[in-house]
Protein backbone atom coordinates (compact mmCIF):
# COMPACT_ATOMS: atom_id res chain seq x y z
CA UNK A 1 0.00 0.00 0.00
CA UNK A 2 1.31 3.47 -0.89
CA UNK A 3 2.11 5.95 1.83
CA UNK A 4 -0.97 8.02 2.81
CA UNK A 5 -3.03 5.74 0.55
CA UNK A 6 -1.91 7.57 -2.58
CA UNK A 7 -0.83 5.99 -5.83
CA UNK A 8 1.85 7.12 -8.25
CA UNK A 9 0.90 9.69 -10.89
CA UNK A 10 2.36 10.13 -14.37
CA UNK A 11 6.14 10.48 -14.18
CA UNK A 12 6.19 13.66 -16.25
CA UNK A 13 3.65 15.32 -13.94
CA UNK A 14 5.54 14.16 -10.86
CA UNK A 15 8.80 15.57 -12.25
CA UNK A 16 7.22 18.96 -12.99
CA UNK A 17 5.70 19.13 -9.50
CA UNK A 18 8.96 18.13 -7.79
CA UNK A 19 11.23 20.33 -9.92
CA UNK A 20 8.92 23.34 -9.78
CA UNK A 21 8.51 23.05 -6.02
CA UNK A 22 12.27 22.74 -5.64
CA UNK A 23 12.84 25.93 -7.65
CA UNK A 24 10.24 27.78 -5.58
CA UNK A 25 11.83 26.72 -2.29
CA UNK A 26 15.33 27.45 -3.59
CA UNK A 27 14.29 31.05 -4.32
CA UNK A 28 12.67 31.36 -0.89
CA UNK A 29 15.82 29.99 0.79
CA UNK A 30 18.50 31.99 -0.99
CA UNK A 31 17.02 35.38 -1.91
CA UNK A 32 17.81 36.89 1.49
CA UNK A 33 20.32 34.33 2.78
CA UNK A 34 23.30 36.67 2.62
CA UNK A 35 21.31 39.52 4.17
CA UNK A 36 20.47 37.18 7.04
CA UNK A 37 24.09 36.10 7.43
CA UNK A 38 25.26 39.73 7.55
CA UNK A 39 22.52 41.39 9.60
CA UNK A 40 21.24 38.64 11.89
CA UNK A 41 24.20 36.27 12.23
CA UNK A 42 26.75 39.12 11.98
CA UNK A 43 29.31 37.10 10.02
CA UNK A 44 32.63 38.73 9.09
CA UNK A 45 33.79 38.86 5.46
CA UNK A 46 36.15 35.93 6.08
CA UNK A 47 33.37 33.88 7.66
CA UNK A 48 31.02 34.67 4.76
CA UNK A 49 33.57 33.40 2.26
CA UNK A 50 34.49 30.35 4.36
CA UNK A 51 30.83 29.29 4.42
CA UNK A 52 30.76 29.30 0.62
CA UNK A 53 34.15 27.63 0.31
CA UNK A 54 33.24 24.79 2.68
CA UNK A 55 29.98 24.30 0.80
CA UNK A 56 31.84 24.00 -2.53
CA UNK A 57 34.39 21.59 -1.06
CA UNK A 58 31.63 19.44 0.45
CA UNK A 59 29.80 19.25 -2.88
CA UNK A 60 33.03 18.15 -4.54
CA UNK A 61 33.82 15.46 -1.96
CA UNK A 62 30.27 14.15 -1.51
CA UNK A 63 29.43 13.76 -5.20
CA UNK A 64 30.74 10.20 -5.45
CA UNK A 65 29.44 8.59 -2.22
CA UNK A 66 25.96 10.11 -2.62
CA UNK A 67 25.92 9.16 -6.31
CA UNK A 68 26.16 5.50 -5.29
CA UNK A 69 22.55 5.65 -4.05
CA UNK A 70 21.29 6.78 -7.46
CA UNK A 71 23.52 4.30 -9.29
CA UNK A 72 22.79 1.19 -7.24
CA UNK A 73 19.50 1.54 -5.40
CA UNK A 74 17.06 4.14 -6.70
CA UNK A 75 17.19 7.52 -8.38
CA UNK A 76 13.79 8.33 -6.93
CA UNK A 77 15.09 7.47 -3.44
CA UNK A 78 18.16 9.66 -4.00
CA UNK A 79 15.91 12.62 -4.90
CA UNK A 80 13.75 12.15 -1.80
CA UNK A 81 16.77 11.80 0.50
CA UNK A 82 18.22 14.94 -1.06
CA UNK A 83 15.08 16.95 -0.34
CA UNK A 84 15.04 15.89 3.31
CA UNK A 85 18.75 16.56 3.87
CA UNK A 86 18.61 19.93 2.10
CA UNK A 87 15.61 20.87 4.27
CA UNK A 88 17.53 20.03 7.42
CA UNK A 89 20.54 22.04 6.26
CA UNK A 90 18.47 25.13 5.42
CA UNK A 91 16.49 24.84 8.67
CA UNK A 92 19.62 24.60 10.82
CA UNK A 93 20.90 27.85 9.33
CA UNK A 94 17.62 29.64 10.05
CA UNK A 95 17.21 28.40 13.62
CA UNK A 96 20.79 29.08 14.78
CA UNK A 97 22.11 32.50 13.57
CA UNK A 98 25.79 31.96 14.33
CA UNK A 99 28.88 31.07 12.30
CA UNK A 100 29.40 27.44 13.38
CA UNK A 101 25.75 26.33 12.97
CA UNK A 102 25.56 28.12 9.60
CA UNK A 103 28.75 26.35 8.53
CA UNK A 104 27.34 22.99 9.63
CA UNK A 105 24.05 23.78 7.92
CA UNK A 106 25.87 24.47 4.64
CA UNK A 107 27.73 21.16 4.90
CA UNK A 108 24.40 19.36 5.41
CA UNK A 109 22.83 21.32 2.52
CA UNK A 110 25.74 20.44 0.20
CA UNK A 111 25.45 16.73 1.00
CA UNK A 112 21.72 16.89 0.29
CA UNK A 113 22.31 18.71 -2.97
CA UNK A 114 24.68 16.00 -4.21
CA UNK A 115 22.00 13.38 -3.59
CA UNK A 116 19.81 15.25 -6.07
CA UNK A 117 22.54 16.31 -8.53
CA UNK A 118 21.81 14.51 -11.78
CA UNK A 119 19.36 12.09 -10.15
CA UNK A 120 16.24 13.96 -11.25
CA UNK A 121 17.23 14.10 -14.91
CA UNK A 122 18.29 10.44 -14.81
CA UNK A 123 15.01 9.39 -13.13
CA UNK A 124 12.70 11.09 -15.60
CA UNK A 125 14.82 9.89 -18.53
CA UNK A 126 14.26 6.32 -17.33
CA UNK A 127 10.51 6.80 -16.88
CA UNK A 128 9.67 8.65 -20.11
CA UNK A 129 10.21 7.59 -23.71
CA UNK A 130 13.34 9.19 -25.25
CA UNK A 131 11.27 11.37 -27.60
CA UNK A 132 9.23 12.67 -24.68
CA UNK A 133 12.05 13.84 -22.41
CA UNK A 134 12.94 17.13 -24.10
CA UNK A 135 9.39 18.56 -23.87
CA UNK A 136 9.37 17.74 -20.15
CA UNK A 137 12.68 19.53 -19.61
CA UNK A 138 11.51 22.54 -21.63
CA UNK A 139 8.27 22.77 -19.69
CA UNK A 140 10.16 22.41 -16.40
CA UNK A 141 12.44 25.32 -17.34
CA UNK A 142 9.43 27.52 -18.12
CA UNK A 143 7.78 26.63 -14.83
CA UNK A 144 11.01 27.23 -12.91
CA UNK A 145 11.38 30.75 -14.31
CA UNK A 146 7.87 31.62 -13.17
CA UNK A 147 7.98 30.07 -9.71
CA UNK A 148 11.46 31.54 -9.16
CA UNK A 149 9.95 35.02 -9.33
CA UNK A 150 7.15 33.93 -7.00
CA UNK A 151 9.66 32.46 -4.56
CA UNK A 152 11.66 35.67 -4.56
CA UNK A 153 8.55 37.71 -3.71
CA UNK A 154 7.56 35.23 -1.00
CA UNK A 155 11.04 35.43 0.53
CA UNK A 156 10.75 39.22 0.61
CA UNK A 157 7.36 39.11 2.31
CA UNK A 158 8.58 36.67 4.95
CA UNK A 159 11.83 38.57 5.41
CA UNK A 160 9.94 41.75 6.25
CA UNK A 161 8.58 39.90 9.28
CA UNK A 162 11.81 38.13 10.28
CA UNK A 163 14.90 37.30 8.22
CA UNK A 164 14.93 33.80 9.73
CA UNK A 165 11.48 32.90 8.43
CA UNK A 166 12.34 32.22 4.78
CA UNK A 167 14.88 29.58 5.75
CA UNK A 168 12.83 27.98 8.52
CA UNK A 169 9.71 27.73 6.36
CA UNK A 170 11.66 26.58 3.30
CA UNK A 171 13.52 23.96 5.37
CA UNK A 172 10.28 22.47 6.67
CA UNK A 173 8.77 22.65 3.18
CA UNK A 174 11.64 20.66 1.61
CA UNK A 175 10.95 17.84 4.07
CA UNK A 176 7.20 18.09 3.40
CA UNK A 177 7.92 17.94 -0.35
CA UNK A 178 9.72 14.61 0.08
CA UNK A 179 6.88 13.17 2.16
CA UNK A 180 4.22 14.32 -0.30
CA UNK A 181 6.06 13.18 -3.43
CA UNK A 182 7.22 9.81 -2.07
CA UNK A 183 4.00 7.93 -2.92
CA UNK A 184 3.38 9.93 -6.11
CA UNK A 185 6.65 9.28 -7.96
CA UNK A 186 6.75 6.04 -9.97
CA UNK A 187 9.99 4.20 -10.68
CA UNK A 188 9.48 1.46 -13.23
CA UNK A 189 12.35 2.08 -15.64
CA UNK A 190 15.30 1.98 -13.26
CA UNK A 191 18.01 -0.63 -13.62
CA UNK A 192 21.22 -0.50 -11.58
CA UNK A 193 24.08 1.18 -13.41
CA UNK A 194 26.73 -1.26 -14.69
CA UNK A 195 29.80 -1.40 -12.50
CA UNK A 196 32.10 0.19 -15.10
CA UNK A 197 29.74 3.19 -15.50
CA UNK A 198 29.07 3.91 -11.83
CA UNK A 199 30.16 7.05 -10.04
CA UNK A 200 33.01 5.81 -7.87
CA UNK A 201 36.31 7.06 -6.53
CA UNK A 202 37.98 5.13 -9.35
CA UNK A 203 35.71 7.00 -11.77
CA UNK A 204 36.65 10.30 -10.10
CA UNK A 205 40.35 9.47 -10.37
CA UNK A 206 39.93 8.63 -14.07
CA UNK A 207 38.08 11.91 -14.59
CA UNK A 208 40.89 13.86 -12.94
CA UNK A 209 43.58 12.08 -14.97
CA UNK A 210 41.73 12.63 -18.25
CA UNK A 211 41.06 16.25 -17.39
CA UNK A 212 44.67 16.95 -16.42
CA UNK A 213 45.84 15.26 -19.62
CA UNK A 214 43.55 17.54 -21.62
CA UNK A 215 44.77 20.54 -19.64
CA UNK A 216 48.37 19.86 -20.65
CA UNK A 217 47.55 19.91 -24.35
CA UNK A 218 47.67 23.11 -26.34
CA UNK A 219 44.45 24.45 -27.71
CA UNK A 220 40.94 25.35 -26.70
CA UNK A 221 40.47 22.76 -23.94
CA UNK A 222 43.52 23.81 -21.94
CA UNK A 223 42.63 27.48 -22.35
CA UNK A 224 39.09 26.95 -21.13
CA UNK A 225 40.26 24.99 -18.10
CA UNK A 226 42.59 27.88 -17.22
CA UNK A 227 39.70 30.32 -17.63
CA UNK A 228 37.47 28.13 -15.43
CA UNK A 229 40.13 28.02 -12.70
CA UNK A 230 40.62 31.81 -12.81
CA UNK A 231 36.86 32.31 -12.74
CA UNK A 232 36.56 30.20 -9.60
CA UNK A 233 39.48 31.93 -7.86
CA UNK A 234 38.02 35.40 -8.45
CA UNK A 235 34.25 34.86 -8.29
CA UNK A 236 33.76 33.43 -4.80
CA UNK A 237 34.64 36.66 -2.99
CA UNK A 238 32.18 38.72 -5.06
CA UNK A 239 29.38 36.18 -4.82
CA UNK A 240 29.69 36.02 -1.03
CA UNK A 241 30.49 39.66 -0.19
CA UNK A 242 28.43 41.87 -2.52
CA UNK A 243 25.54 41.95 -0.04
CA UNK A 244 27.80 42.85 2.88
CA UNK A 245 29.42 45.63 0.83
CA UNK A 246 26.07 47.23 0.00
CA UNK A 247 24.81 46.99 3.58
CA UNK A 248 28.02 48.35 5.12
CA UNK A 249 28.72 51.09 2.59
CA UNK A 250 25.37 52.58 1.62
CA UNK A 251 22.23 53.74 3.33
CA UNK A 252 19.24 52.08 1.71
CA UNK A 253 16.65 54.63 0.60
CA UNK A 254 13.40 54.92 2.49
CA UNK A 255 10.23 54.02 0.62
CA UNK A 256 7.02 55.21 2.32
CA UNK A 257 8.81 54.99 5.62
CA UNK A 258 10.16 51.50 4.91
CA UNK A 259 13.88 50.93 4.48
CA UNK A 260 14.00 47.26 5.38
CA UNK A 261 16.87 45.38 3.75
CA UNK A 262 14.50 42.50 3.00
CA UNK A 263 12.40 44.73 0.76
CA UNK A 264 15.30 46.22 -1.16
CA UNK A 265 17.29 43.04 -1.64
CA UNK A 266 14.18 41.31 -2.92
CA UNK A 267 13.85 44.12 -5.45
CA UNK A 268 17.54 43.79 -6.34
CA UNK A 269 17.12 40.04 -6.91
CA UNK A 270 14.09 40.56 -9.17
CA UNK A 271 15.93 43.24 -11.12
CA UNK A 272 18.90 40.92 -11.55
CA UNK A 273 16.68 38.15 -12.93
CA UNK A 274 15.02 40.57 -15.35
CA UNK A 275 18.32 42.06 -16.53
CA UNK A 276 19.78 38.58 -17.11
CA UNK A 277 16.75 37.63 -19.22
CA UNK A 278 16.80 40.86 -21.25
CA UNK A 279 20.56 40.56 -21.81
CA UNK A 280 20.23 37.03 -23.15
CA UNK A 281 17.34 37.95 -25.45
CA UNK A 282 19.05 41.12 -26.69
CA UNK A 283 22.35 39.38 -27.41
CA UNK A 284 20.63 36.69 -29.45
CA UNK A 285 18.50 39.30 -31.23
CA UNK A 286 21.13 41.89 -32.15
CA UNK A 287 24.46 40.03 -32.04
CA UNK A 288 23.51 36.49 -33.02
CA UNK A 289 26.18 36.25 -35.73
CA UNK A 290 28.97 37.23 -33.36
CA UNK A 291 27.98 35.12 -30.36
CA UNK A 292 27.26 32.08 -32.54
CA UNK A 293 30.50 32.35 -34.49
CA UNK A 294 32.62 29.20 -34.60
CA UNK A 295 35.48 30.92 -32.74
CA UNK A 296 34.22 34.06 -30.93
CA UNK A 297 37.53 34.84 -29.20
CA UNK A 298 37.07 38.61 -29.35
CA UNK A 299 33.54 38.45 -27.97
CA UNK A 300 34.59 36.24 -25.06
CA UNK A 301 37.51 38.51 -24.18
CA UNK A 302 35.23 41.57 -24.31
CA UNK A 303 32.65 39.94 -22.02
CA UNK A 304 35.37 39.10 -19.50
CA UNK A 305 36.59 42.72 -19.57
CA UNK A 306 33.02 43.90 -19.00
CA UNK A 307 32.81 41.62 -15.96
CA UNK A 308 36.08 43.08 -14.66
CA UNK A 309 34.77 46.60 -15.15
CA UNK A 310 31.59 45.65 -13.30
CA UNK A 311 33.48 44.29 -10.30
CA UNK A 312 35.83 47.28 -10.08
CA UNK A 313 32.98 49.75 -10.60
CA UNK A 314 31.01 48.02 -7.86
CA UNK A 315 33.99 48.20 -5.49
CA UNK A 316 34.91 51.87 -5.98
CA UNK A 317 31.51 53.48 -6.59
CA UNK A 318 30.36 56.02 -4.03
CA UNK A 319 26.74 55.79 -5.14
CA UNK A 320 24.35 52.94 -4.39
CA UNK A 321 22.74 53.09 -7.81
CA UNK A 322 26.05 53.24 -9.66
CA UNK A 323 27.24 50.24 -7.63
CA UNK A 324 24.07 48.34 -8.51
CA UNK A 325 24.46 49.29 -12.16
CA UNK A 326 28.02 47.93 -12.14
CA UNK A 327 26.86 44.70 -10.49
CA UNK A 328 24.06 44.24 -13.03
CA UNK A 329 26.53 44.94 -15.85
CA UNK A 330 28.60 42.03 -14.56
CA UNK A 331 25.46 39.87 -14.35
CA UNK A 332 24.52 40.69 -17.95
CA UNK A 333 28.00 39.84 -19.24
CA UNK A 334 28.03 36.55 -17.31
CA UNK A 335 24.61 35.61 -18.68
CA UNK A 336 25.64 36.23 -22.28
CA UNK A 337 29.03 34.55 -21.87
CA UNK A 338 27.91 31.26 -20.32
CA UNK A 339 26.23 29.65 -23.38
CA UNK A 340 28.94 30.97 -25.71
CA UNK A 341 31.62 29.32 -23.58
CA UNK A 342 29.76 26.01 -23.33
CA UNK A 343 29.04 25.84 -27.06
CA UNK A 344 32.58 26.81 -28.00
CA UNK A 345 34.10 24.19 -25.76
CA UNK A 346 31.69 21.52 -26.97
CA UNK A 347 32.58 22.26 -30.61
CA UNK A 348 36.26 21.69 -29.91
CA UNK A 349 35.99 18.43 -27.98
CA UNK A 350 35.31 15.03 -29.49
CA UNK A 351 32.00 13.41 -28.59
CA UNK A 352 33.75 10.55 -26.79
CA UNK A 353 35.40 12.87 -24.26
CA UNK A 354 32.95 15.80 -24.26
CA UNK A 355 31.13 14.91 -21.04
CA UNK A 356 34.39 14.28 -19.19
CA UNK A 357 35.93 17.55 -20.35
CA UNK A 358 32.84 19.61 -19.53
CA UNK A 359 32.66 17.99 -16.10
CA UNK A 360 36.31 18.69 -15.43
CA UNK A 361 35.81 22.34 -16.44
CA UNK A 362 33.12 22.59 -13.75
CA UNK A 363 35.44 20.95 -11.24
CA UNK A 364 38.20 23.41 -12.16
CA UNK A 365 35.84 26.26 -11.29
CA UNK A 366 35.02 24.63 -7.93
CA UNK A 367 38.70 24.06 -7.18
CA UNK A 368 39.38 27.71 -7.99
CA UNK A 369 36.73 28.80 -5.50
CA UNK A 370 38.28 26.66 -2.78
CA UNK A 371 41.75 28.05 -3.57
CA UNK A 372 40.80 31.69 -3.93
CA UNK A 373 37.98 32.11 -1.44
CA UNK A 374 39.74 31.96 1.97
CA UNK A 375 42.74 34.21 1.10
CA UNK A 376 40.52 36.87 -0.45
CA UNK A 377 38.07 36.60 2.45
CA UNK A 378 40.94 37.10 4.89
CA UNK A 379 42.11 40.08 2.84
CA UNK A 380 38.62 41.60 3.03
CA UNK A 381 38.60 41.18 6.83
CA UNK A 382 42.09 42.64 7.33
CA UNK A 383 41.66 45.55 4.89
CA UNK A 384 38.23 46.10 3.35
CA UNK A 385 35.76 44.40 1.02
CA UNK A 386 36.49 46.82 -1.88
CA UNK A 387 40.20 45.97 -1.71
CA UNK A 388 39.44 42.24 -1.92
CA UNK A 389 37.06 42.81 -4.83
CA UNK A 390 39.64 44.80 -6.77
CA UNK A 391 42.27 42.10 -6.17
CA UNK A 392 39.79 39.45 -7.37
CA UNK A 393 39.25 41.44 -10.56
CA UNK A 394 43.00 41.67 -11.12
CA UNK A 395 43.33 37.91 -10.65
CA UNK A 396 40.59 37.38 -13.25
CA UNK A 397 42.28 39.72 -15.74
CA UNK A 398 44.51 37.08 -17.39
CA UNK A 399 41.37 35.21 -18.46
CA UNK A 400 40.68 37.97 -20.99
CA UNK A 401 44.15 37.52 -22.45
CA UNK A 402 43.72 33.74 -22.65
CA UNK A 403 40.35 34.19 -24.37
CA UNK A 404 41.70 36.69 -26.88
CA UNK A 405 44.55 34.33 -27.81
CA UNK A 406 42.31 31.31 -28.32
CA UNK A 407 42.74 29.71 -31.71
CA UNK A 408 40.96 26.75 -33.34
CA UNK A 409 42.37 23.27 -32.87
CA UNK A 410 44.32 21.93 -35.82
CA UNK A 411 41.45 19.73 -36.98
CA UNK A 412 39.09 22.71 -36.78
CA UNK A 413 41.32 24.85 -38.97
CA UNK A 414 41.44 22.12 -41.58
CA UNK A 415 37.68 21.59 -41.62
CA UNK A 416 36.17 22.96 -44.81
CA UNK A 417 33.74 25.80 -44.49
CA UNK A 418 30.28 24.95 -45.79
CA UNK A 419 28.18 27.73 -47.26
CA UNK A 420 24.47 27.73 -46.88
CA UNK A 421 22.35 27.91 -49.98
CA UNK A 422 20.66 31.27 -50.31
Automatic annotation (TrEMBL):
Pfam families: MFS_1 (PF07690). GO terms for molecular function: transmembrane transporter activity. SUPFAM superfamilies: MFS general substrate transporter. Gene3D superfamilies: MFS general substrate transporter like domains. The keyword Signal does not apply. The keyword Transmembrane applies. Keywords: Membrane, Transmembrane, Transmembrane helix. It comes from the Bacteria. The chain crosses the membrane at residues 14-36, 48-70, 77-96, 167-185, 224-242, 262-287, 299-324, 385-406. InterPro entries: MFS, MFS_DHA3_Transporter, MFS_trans_sf. This is MFS transporter, DHA3 family, tetracycline resistance protein. It comes from Microlunatus soli.
Amino acid sequence: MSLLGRRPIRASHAYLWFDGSWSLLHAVSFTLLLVYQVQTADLTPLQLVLVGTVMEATCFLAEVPTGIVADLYSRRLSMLIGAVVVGVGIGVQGVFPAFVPILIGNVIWAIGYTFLSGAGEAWISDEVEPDGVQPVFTRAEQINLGVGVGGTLLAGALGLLDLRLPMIIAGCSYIALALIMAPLMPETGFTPTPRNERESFRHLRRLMVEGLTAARRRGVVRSFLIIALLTGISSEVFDRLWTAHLLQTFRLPSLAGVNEAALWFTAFALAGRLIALISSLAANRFAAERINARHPAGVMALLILIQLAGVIGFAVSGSLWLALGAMWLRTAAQTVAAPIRSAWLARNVSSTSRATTLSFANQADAIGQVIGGPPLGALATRTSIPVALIVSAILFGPAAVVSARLRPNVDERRRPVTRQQS
